[in-house]
Amino acid sequence: MEPQNSDTEILEHRLGNKVRAVLPHGPGEFVLFVLKQGWAALFGGAMLAGILLSKAIWQESWPIARYDALVIWAVGLQAAFLWFRLESWREVKVILLFHLTGTIMEVFKVHAGSWAYPEPGLLKIMGVPLFSGFMYASVGSFQARVIRIFDMRFTPYPPYWASVVLGAAIYFNFFGHHFLPDMRWVLMAATVLLFWRTRIWFTIGRAYWMPLPLAAFFSSFFLWIAENVGTRTGTWVYAGSGGVDWASLNKMGSWYLLLYVSFVTVTLVYREALGAPPSTKDPASTLPPE
């Protein structure tokens, strides 16, 4: 899928060898799974680190607003990911598309009063700081990177047109439920019905699999935790909350659905992984020895 033998792939391979050299197979596989997940989430983790650090140190007297500094931080991260080949240009194109769709939804939700960004800043569009789109893009970045890092395959995959229709329906429900009946529970049921047979095959030392809806549920839980970094630091405030309240568990359901929108968007790049059998070739075999 991705060109082999990049500097980052060689680094991943060598780090994996070091873990396997010091740990038995079972614990080693688990540690590598956690490390690969963290490596895939590098962009999102760096964004959360920027939010936490800026909240801890920022002074109102400083010449630049915290929100604007976060925009600069996000743009710098994206440039660094390209410079160090942590993402390819074809991945970035899809991530930017998710950035755009996320920003459009942010503008609508802020205008509808669902949440707000209370701090000042110059780099805003209709009350929405531009760094917020990068928070959505970090989800796309994670999904694109985790597919490559774990050499994922999705099989059996439902008709592609059906997944696109479902993703579009989920996206428009985020807007439509302000005027029409909220269909989120119907859409959640539709994700299970459409993808209940789909297995995510992923490779660590050997191939493993997990049902796609279960993987989406686990991912939505960790995204809910990440969301609470934003609410607890007051970076964004939900309507009716005290400013630093925990995000409700309903938000986890929203992230569960949004993950399918992100997944369908990312599959524009990784169509070859859909419906394909799991890879039997060790991806490390194409890398040079240490």
Q: What would you call the structural class?
A: mainly alpha
- Main sheet makeup: 3 strands, antiparallel
Strand order of the largest sheet: 4-5-6
Strand content: 5-15%
Spatial shape? globular
What is the rounded Rg?
20 Å
Order of helices and strands: HHHHHEEEHEHHEEHEH
The percent range for helix content is 55-70%
What do you see in this structure?
By secondary structure, the chain is mainly alpha-helical. The protein has one domain (43-281). It is built from ten helices and seven strands. It has helices at residues 7-22, 25-40, 42-57, 66-83, 89-112, 131-149, 160-176, 184-195, 212-232, 250-266, and strands at residues 115-116, 124-125, 128-129, 153-155, 199-203, 207-211, 237-238. The protein has a three-stranded antiparallel β-sheet. A two-stranded antiparallel ribbon has the order 1-7. The two termini are 23 Å apart. Residues 1-5 and 280-290 have low confidence and may be disordered.
